[in-house]
Design a protein that fits this description.
This protein is an alpha/beta fold. It is globular, with a radius of gyration of 22 Å. It contains eleven helices and twelve strands. The strands form two sheets. It has a seven-stranded parallel β-sheet, with helices on both faces. The protein has a five-stranded parallel β-sheet with strand order 2-1-3-4-5. The chain has two domains: 115 residues, Rossmann fold (3-Layer(aba) Sandwich), CATH 3.40.50; 184 residues, Rossmann fold. Helix 3 links the parallel strand 3 and strand 4. The chain starts with a strand and ends in a 10-residue tail after the last helix.
Length: 321
């Protein structure tokens, strides 16, 4: 039986899913987490490695190449693997595209609604603080409420997730603009393409859905933020390094940026000295937008399908052709 090693499976499956789709394909060895010094020993003799965040570099690939034939990245991004070294060694590398589209789009709107409606805050005021019980009126408000209807959302990047966000925003009655390489004729009529400068200046909400590349690293800079509409909301569920976190914190402290919502940070887990942790009007979630049970089930199923296709000589979702 082929040895299949899962290096960091806890995030994908903390115990509520079945590993059976992968167990059918060989001898499955599962690890919740793997430290760098443990990687080689755990992978030695493996036919296939499955990794999410554990780095598989050139040196490790060269040491494992005699038996290793397949590396499956249990995510869409695959920067943790030296794909060039794997190609040279004849090792196939695959990823999992588009498994979390609906989950991430839902998280974008969850962040936005939380900022506009403050549901958790008001529930706490009612259930824990007794503010409604002691109110002199039939209602009380101590934080402003804001409608989405008629306001403009600017979407940076119209891949699967960006497009899903666009459709949800339109359903709320928002005006939708986008910075995208897609031509106007390829877009739904309710989306207005525009320049980055116009998007920043016009949008009440800006949400980032572009890939992290050398060109988009710190896309959101001090100068970029200065172009944003005063009091607007910035949402990042893409990659932490898309934004200069010090610049975002400064814009929040100055009051120019209305709020910052993010599911990702430049370093994860969050460092205690991250400037966003002490900035006002910040809402952070711990990189969980992808992690609904439904999305994780799709991820595990596709992971097994990718490996099965490779074993059958019909590989799919290859990233190092």
């Amino acid at each position: 039986m082929k040895k299949i090693v899962v290096l960091d499976g806890f995030a994908m499956n903390p115990g509520d899913l079945s590993w059976e789709p992968l167990e059918r394909l060989g001898t499955l060895v599962r690890h919740d987490r793997t430290a760098p010094h443990e990687t080689y020993q755990r992978c030695e003799g493996a036919f296939a490695i499955l990794t999410n965040k554990v780095v598989i570099d050139k040196d490790l690939i060269c040491r494992l190449a005699p038996t290793l034939r397949y590396i499956g990245v249990t995510a869409t991004g695959y920067n943790v693997v030296d794909t060039d070294a794997a190609r040279e060694a004849g090792i196939c590398v695959t990823n999992i595209p588009a498994y979390s589209t609906h989950a991430v789009a839902q998280m974008v709107m969850a962040h936005l609604l939380a900022m506009c409606n403050h549901v958790e805050h008001y529930s706490r005021q009612v259930c824990e603080e007794g503010k409604w019980t002691s109110s002199k009126d039939f209602c009380f408000t101590d934080l402003p409420l804001k409608e989405l209807y008629g306001h403009t959302i600017g979407i940076v990047g119209l891949g699967a997730i960006g497009m899903a966000v666009a459709h949800i925003a339109q359903a709320f009655g928002m005006k939708v603009t986008a910075y995208t390489s897609k031509p106007q004729e390829a877009l739904p009529p309710f989306i207005t393409p525009c320049s980055m400068e116009a998007l920043c200046a016009q949008s009440d909400v800006v949400t980032l859905h572009c890939p992290l590349t050398p060109d988009t690293h710190h896309l959101v800079s001090t100068a970029w933020l200065a172009q944003m509409k005063e009091g607007s909301i910035l949402i990042n569920t893409g990659r932490g390094p898309l934004v200069d976190e010090h610049a975002v914190a400064a814009a929040l402290h100055s009051g120019h940026l209305g709020a910052y919502c993010a599911d990702v940070l430049s370093e994860e887990p969050a460092r205690a000295d991250n400037p966003l942790l002490s900035a006002p009007r910040v809402q952070l979630t711990p990189h969980i937008a992808w992690a609904t049970q439904e999305a994780r089930q799709r991820l595990l199923n596709c992971c097994a399908d990718n490996l099965a296709a490779f074993i059958q000589g019909k590989p799919t979702n290859i990233v190092n052709k």
